[in-house]
Amino acid sequence: MAAEQFQQLHAYLDSQIIGQTQLTRSLLIAMLADGHLLVEGPPGLAKTRAINALANGMDADFHRVQFTPDLLPADLTGTDIYRPETGEFVFQKGPLFHNLVLADEINRAPAKVQSALLEAMAERQITVGNKTYSLPAMFLVMATQNPLEQEGTYPLPEAQLDRFLMHIEIDYPQAQTELQILQLTRDEERQKSSPTLTKLTQADIFAARKQAINLHMAPELERYIVELVVATRTPEKYDTELGDWIEFGVSPRATIALDRCARAHAWLAGREFVGPDDIQAVFHNVLRHRIILSYQAEAQGVTANQVLDRVVQLVAVP
């Protein structure tokens, strides 16, 4: 039953976000794997619309935060408000206490704001003063970055990047797809209504997560995941050029994320087991933001995607 509901939600997202199938699928994988998403792409590619559509298909509340240089940590976490009628301080919750949070242009906020978000993403809690508050059990952050404008931005530190389950890169749609987008927006203006959809409850999502994590994975594939990760740490053992390209490999968080995302990918496809194709389908999105390239690779114009392509080619598939 949960699988059918997710398939309906997936179809709904694809009908609302045309031409961005990787983004819609990744949102559902992040939901199933209980992780957060970093989406990078030019403006106007329906990033905000995507998470809005996801919120419409779920029994969950949603909040968007526009990150700016003058944003303060309290603007995310909330703060203690003094009530003169009682003479007490009362905690006023911030936007992080919603189920779905869109951190729009996350790299425009300074480090102190990013650190506040880091605790929420990693520990599912926030600390204000000497008190710690738990966040909702159903909690997902989708952060966006604009690759076209880097002036006045604060690059995310590696420690925070590692907290994102996946890093998705999206680009402009094809001409035929853009025509469909034009028709969709025109139809929405005329009808002033959206397709009816049975909303997923949070209980449905938790049940689906349990099914995905219990999906069968052969021991050989578990070793395959570990070998892919280890290849980024000791690349010189596989290829001299690859060793020159990678400065630092990925952490065990990447191993865990690759396992969970591969299971979610297989579950969404309706399979009862995980195959090598499932691991390879999510490999780039899971490791793209975690791998640190050397100066030599950057000087040669080698991208993280090209490095990961080489890793997949060199590590034997069981």
**Unreliable parts:** none
Radius of gyration from CA coordinates:
21 Å
CATH architecture of the largest domain: 3-Layer(aba) Sandwich
Distance between the termini: 32 Å
Widest β-sheet, arrangement of strands? 2-5-8-1-9
Named CATH topology of the largest domain: Rossmann fold
**How helical, in percent, are the residues?**
40-55%
Described by the principal axes of the CA atoms, the overall outline is: globular
Overall number of domains: 2
Strand content: 15-25%
Structural class: alpha/beta
CATH superfamily of the largest domain: P-loop containing nucleotide triphosphate hydrolases
Report the order of strands and helices. Answer: HHEHEHEEEHEEEHEHHHHEHHEHH
